[in-house]
Please model this.
Amino acid sequence: MSRSSIVAAWAKRHLDLLALVLVGLVAAALRAAFLVRAPVFVTGDSESYLGPAFDLARGLGFDLSLKRTPAYPGFVALVIGAWGEDLRALALAQHILGILTAVLTFVLGRLAFGWGVGLAAGLLTALNGALVLVGQTVMTEALFVPLVLGALTALVAALRTGRLPLYALAGLLLGAATLTRPVAQALAPLVPLAVLLVERRWRPTLVFSAVALGAFVVTLAPWVLRSASEQDSASVGSLGQTLVGRTARHDRGQFVYYDPVVHDAEPDPYRLQARRVLQQAAENGSSGKAIHTRLRRELGLSVAETDRLMRDLAIEAIQRRPDYYLQGTLQRFIRLSLGSVERLPAYQNTSDVARQRWEDPETRHLLAPTSVAEQRAAPAAGTLVSIYQPGYLGALLPLLAIAGLAITLVRGTTRPAAILGLAALVLLFTSAALVGNVARYRFPEDPLLAVLACGAIAAVADAVRRAIRRRKVAQGRVSRLTENAEDKPPRHDSAPRGSASPIGDARP
Model:
């Protein structure tokens, strides 16, 4: 047996391993090339994560605002403690998570639709320039994307095998994702729905769902209890700031918080003053954080009290214009679904503005300015993140993903993958409803859409291939029948044409 045939036989037996290595190498090569050519980017939100993480790494406590969750600052603190006070070390760790994201996408596609779909979706995720930019930026998505993907991969594997440890793992990872970005808790109700779609029986649905959701609750419980004791708010995240940010900033001037004719008779002076502040913010387009800070300072309320007041007034404003709120949410949902192309100069500009406005003196030394070498390498870095982005495909990618979701619901063998489409829809709609059209909120859905879209293409290709095969088989049968008819000798009657049969001539 030749060496080439031995290698071919080994490769045939280890296709999954080869695909994992290929996807991982492509993702690693792209991210390594970008890491050495671009600075580490920061945003307006980076300071609220980096400051607490830096304090935690130095053993000075862990003071987070009510809106922020602990997982990403904890991850940053771990990197700082292990690799030192250098944001490039953080970027390296985040790019490693990006490689893991690409590998998980292959595994998820392999479980959902097969090897080819997993490889295609994994390579698309590995080359996704938007996710490369995420790895180079101090933002929660760097951790949130692999956690969501890991939770869904574990859940799909659990739905296929029925193993309780996989359900528990899915719940733990979903809890960790929620502690990174609270929007992930919107996925929890999908767990029993996905189990019911696959099992179609109540007893296993209840058992498997209880295991997954129990692990989810156990993961969240310590932080929820801490928030309840220290900030008088047994919750994950800050709905008040989020809703005010949506209604006052993203829908600037469209929602009324204070009308003198209606609200001057407000018996509660705190609510009346809060209405006036929110109305000014709605007219000026102020952020939820700025509004929260002003209300606390002027009204002397606690963090939790201020957030509850903002939440109540925002919901009240939405209830006065529910049609506009729903219309705006649908518009933002469509824009988020279509995606956008992320440009390197935009990240550089945002980072420069954030550096200028940085207030925390303890972490300012981490913000290294762009070097001359990085400025010269900017065109090459821009090319690297422009190789592929989902935004290039526009409406094609979400439409193919919808087709993939439909296929998973129709085909029993692919039904466990329906959770991918449902999760993408829930995350996109929740982000649009609570925040608005923020491009980075689409990034966690990119691998899911890639898997579903590739699954739809593979299903169509398989249907075409089967149709061609059936047609060839039918043509072969017709050809064989024709050949048999031509080869068969002609039949000759024993009696001459026109002569009477002996039986016919018989007389009684």
User: Anything to note?
Assistant: The chain has two domains: 9-237+329-463, 255-320.
